[in-house]
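Section 3.1 - Work completed
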Amino acid sequence: MCKASATLLWSGGAVELSILSLIALVLMAGGAWLFLSSRQTAQQRERRRRIAVNKNGRMGDAMITDVRDSVLFYSYQVRGVGYAASQDVSDLQHLLPADTSVLIGPAGLKFTPGNPADSILICEHWSGLRPAAVQLEESRPKENSHP
């Protein structure tokens, strides 16, 4: 009888059913882990966007028109089309000068070729900001001291 019940288990598909159930359970657990770990905050999505634009973007010229709180407002042209945009730089405050009003003026930007409206002025690895105060100091001719 012992031999008959063992044969019934092997031939009845119980092993196959157990293996398939185990595989399904592992796949469901893996899917749940991927879903929960892929959830990103808005800050994480914005950081990934900035890095992607920096990596794949083309360079252009922009004009910073205003700085309010931690938002840079700027305008630029790509292939004759004018764009007005803004970038929240609250996560990048450590890269900005203490007096952000010196940023108003010309700047470099990067934009994605397929979507020129997707642009940045600064990210973790690159900056197109040109502080006016620094430009003025560098452009002044140095005076020679003659006795």
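Second construct:
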Amino acid sequence: MPSTPVVLAVIGFAILVVVGLVLLTGEANKPAVSGEGAATKLTPDGFPYEGDENAPVTIDIYSDYGCSHCKDFALETEPLIEQNYVATGKVKLVWHYFGFSAETQVVAAAAVCAAEQNNYAQFNRTLFANQATLTTGNLASWASQVGLDMTAFNKCLQSSDSKIKVQKSTNLAYAAGVNATPTFFINGEKIEGALPFEDFSAKIEQALAGANP
């Protein structure tokens, strides 16, 4: 018969295994946000989105890669919205391809190519994080940094299709009343400017109350 220390060691090991499995299962079921490597999906009309497809609140985002306030939102406020509302299934973020200038439209076309590989959110944030040194000539380096398939990325970027998508999306944005960036629509309500998270939270809570009367 095994000695008491051996039995206790076996029991202890079994407990550790069970606890480890529980933790792994919890991590696997945890809704991922872009900062944690979540794959972004595409809406039926081709825009990248993150979150529950049927979330009660949708935030449509219009940003320009040359806009410093857009950078502030992408790096400071957006992660908080993801953590507090996207990961809990309450909000869906939808990014719209947009560019005021010919140069930023080329950058947005690169984002289209990232979206085709389900990696829009990480690429988008990487571009904003490197806004000071971002040029149309170094897009491939940032694409490589986030692990995109470079053969597919380069082929996509050289194609006119990605640029046409950006131009069509930009035209739709103008038609919707987007005249400055960043601009947001929270369940259809237009919001302009990189508001602090607290202001976004108040708007989201208001939209949630309206969606669940």
